[in-house]
Amino acid sequence: MAFFVYILRCADGSYYSGHTDNIEIRIAEHQAGEGSQWTKTRLPVEHVWSQEFVAREEALISERRIKGWSRAKKEALIAGQWDEVSRLAKSRSLSALRQAQDERGNASVAEIEPHEVRGSQSIAPETLDAILSHAAEAHPKECCGLLLGEEARITHAHPTANVHPDPATHFEIDPAALIAAHKAEREGGPRIIGYYHSHPNGLAQPSPTDRESAAYDGKVWAIVANGDVRFFRDGEDGFEALSYEVEPR
Fold first, then answer.
1. Could you report the per-residue pLDDT of 110-151, keeping only the tens digit for each?
2. SS3 readout for 20-81
3. For 165-199, what is each residue's pLDDT tens digit?
4. Rounded to 10 degrees, what is the CA torsion of 214, 218, 222, 223?
């Protein structure tokens, strides 16, 4: 089954991003006023861009990433101007660094740590043990799974299969497990705080591949390497390191 991420241009000039497994039907629903609350009050809408994905998780990640983009960046994507998309992404990162520079008393950009710790998490000791054990069992391949809990507290780690074709250097959480976890959350179960995976031959920090797949959705990422676990938030301006405290047993 194929999955699609799409962008609609609304009558007021705003853009709406969504994902679906039947793009013709879903766009027809939006145009008939039977789609989202946003589009039904901004008719007519025009389908201006879409892209196909082989897994629902990939489509979800792409949709969340696009929702966080500026209007200029969305319009560059619609026009197929990939160089402009890249330029705007870099401009946003530089703007964030300059803001941090101002907040730190005109420090030079070079002095700003790329993984400055912002915020914190607490984690149950058995949950941390479970993450480390899963990484050891999966070695030399990457393990992956879901982090469950509430607010700034991680209470459970839910291991999932790594379904990526190259699990030695990449990870992809089993879409079936992700969908089941979202369904359980909607029914009152534990919240999906974020995700974890291992770097069997790397460092406990986001890799270039991780940065490419980031959704900028505020989720927590735990990365395991060489018996070390570090936590990061996938924020609007990229990964931010988080401190963490292991709760008493």
1. 332 333 334 578 898 899 999 999 999 999 999 999 999 987
2. ECCHHHHHHHHHCCCCCHHHHCCCCCEEEEEEEECCHHHHHHHHHHHHCCCHHHHHHHHCCC
3. 999 999 999 988 888 998 898 888 999 999 999 99
4. 30
Give the integer Cα–Cα distance in Å for 24 and 221: 34
The domain made up of 3-68 is a member of CATH 3.40.1440.10: yes
**Catalytic site includes residue 142:** yes
Task: Return d(Cα 119, Cα 152) in angstroms, integer.
Answer: 9
List the structure tokens of 160.
């999932």
Q: Catalytic residue, from 58, 75, 142, 172: name it.
A: 142
Does the pTM surpass 0.70? The reply is no
Domain boundaries, the chain: 3-68, 71-112, 117-246
Q: Is the dihedral of CA 23, 53, 180, 176 positive or negative?
A: positive
**Partners of 150 in the β-ladder:** 153
> What confidence score (pLDDT) does residue 160 get?
95
Query: CATH number of the domain at 117-246, out of 1.20.1250.20, 3.40.50.1000, 3.30.300.350, 3.40.140.10?
Result: 3.40.140.10
Report the amino acid identity of residue 228: D
What is the overall mean pLDDT for the chain? 83
CA distances from 124 to 16, 30, 150, 154 (A): 39, 44, 12, 7
